[in-house]
Amino acid sequence: CFYHDIQHESGTKISKYYLSDNEFNLKEIADNHYYSNNLSANFTLSQNATKRYLKNQLSLNRFWDYETGIIVNPDKLEQKAETPHTSVSNSFDLLIPHKKNFFRIYSTIDYNNSPQKLSFWPGVFVNEINDGESYLKTVQHFTQEELIGQNFLRFTLSRKPWSFDTEVGLKLELQNQRSFIEKDNQILDADSLNNDYRWSSYELYCNENFRYEKGNLRLGIETPFRLLFYEFKDVYHHSFGPSERFLFSPRFWVNYDLNGYWSGSASVRHSKTLGEASQLTQGYIITGYRNMQKRSDKLDDKENFSYSAGLKYKNPVSGFFSSWT
């Protein structure tokens, strides 16, 4: 299918900045246009038989999006953002029942490529880019190419009142991000204004889930183990790896139906995750005519403890439902 859309937005924005000894007023008049063009196609193969369920889907997507805008602040500034995007993905799902048990084989792969361009007339960030002298045009080229995949085998064993899920799989993420800035059609070669990194991550994981259901009581324990191997290579800045990390994020939950109207629930979870590769952009990237930013070379771990408890009331006859958490 093909999708086409045009939007127009105009308005005035007034901002006030309160400083220690005075205040600064900023008035901006904006006139923006948004153009969206999207072509997508899906091809699906499926089979639903007694001995197996099979589904394979191939998706193709192409976007030709861009935005234009004029800002008066009080000088006139024109800007244009071109954000084309190509995506190709395929997913394979096979479910095989065996008595009261199930085998599931799943595989997905997703490729994305987005070569973007951000332009300003006249040039912006004159102090950082042109030693304080005004110039005609700034153009930033930004490209992100990514390949993501996941494959797993899951086995479900049911022995009432217990059920057990075992899932063993592999995840991969390959990413290449590049950016550079042009000043009046001249490429700036300063390392601080360039980015070119490659990120590769491979994750082996095993999820063990145990569930118990009897009468009004339902409880479960989840024990996911993850072993990550990753490497970061940067042409202009600091690189690191190859490295590895072991992560364990258990969870326990319980639900109990007090009667036909009231039920209670509680859960506790400890999770550890690794930061995103996008936080490693060490060269400056322009995100707007007033914003230019860079990140650090550290990949932070995130660790969380979460607890929750809740009480629910439902009365289908009167139509009254309520919950407290």
Radius of gyration: 27 Å
Outline type: globular
Give the biggest beta sheet.
Answer: 6 strands, antiparallel, barrel
Order of helices and strands: EEEEEEEHEEEEEEEEEEEE
End-to-end distance, in Å?
Answer: 43 Å
Poorly predicted runs? none
Structural class: mainly beta
Detailed description of the structure:
By secondary structure, the protein is mainly β. Helices cover 2% and strands 75% of the residues. It is built from one helix and 19 strands. The chain has one helix at 126-130, and strands at 2-18, 23-48, 53-63, 66-72, 76-82, 85-98, 101-121, 138-159, 162-183, 186-187, 195-214, 217-234, 240-248, 251-257, 262-274, 285-288, 291-293, 301-315, 320-324. The protein has a six-stranded antiparallel barrel. It has a two-stranded antiparallel sheet with strand order 16-17. A hairpin with a 2-residue loop joins β8 (138-159) and β9. The longest helix is centred in the middle third of the chain and has 5 residues, at 126-130. The radius of gyration is 27 Å and the shape is globular. The two termini are 43 Å apart. The relative contact order is 0.09. The mean pLDDT is 90.
